[in-house]
Prior knowledge:
6 helices
Amino acid sequence: MKELDEKTKAMLKIIEEDADSFGRRAEMYYKKRPELINMVEDFYRAHRSLAERYDQVRSDPGARLGPTLSSPFLPNKYQQPEKPTSPIDQSCDKPTTIMESGESEVDDPEQEDDTQLDEELGEEEEVSSGISNVEVMKLREEIERLKEENKIQKDQLMQKDEEKREVIRQLSLAVQVLKEENVSLRKSATKASPKKWSPIELNKLKASFLGKLFIGPRPSVVAL
């Protein structure tokens, strides 16, 4: 009985051990579960052994010696009289039934703990699932916003590129017009340039000029 009391106290200590948070309790439960199962099995074996010993003590010792003492060759005074069976003895003759009920009583707290833990885990999963859904919605909204901004920036870049191309076209036209005007001016300058004199013509012109300068003009002849 002392051994059973010690095992019972040890199991209660493990079951009633507190933790700071739900995660800590779950961690302690899964760590202590194998130890608790082993203790329950030891408790079951000890309880069954005690029940068997109790059944042996409660049963009539003379009944076990009956086949030896009850002999047709022995006088009746040496034979063990049969002891009437009482309801208490009949109840003690069923250790298996007692142990089965004891086993069910021992297993029930563990099953309740499992159920409670599963419920708490389910609640935590629901909360986590709700948080995850909110985060997913926020991420999707952020992605849509970034896509819209990206589209706007692309449109702006395309518009700026088009403006640049238009400026380039206008500058190209202006350069072409300037080139054409330059060619036209060159042609006009070539046509309007003075005639170039040959060296002989220049000498004749020079002599004529000097003659007029130093000799003077010829006198006019007066007709008589």
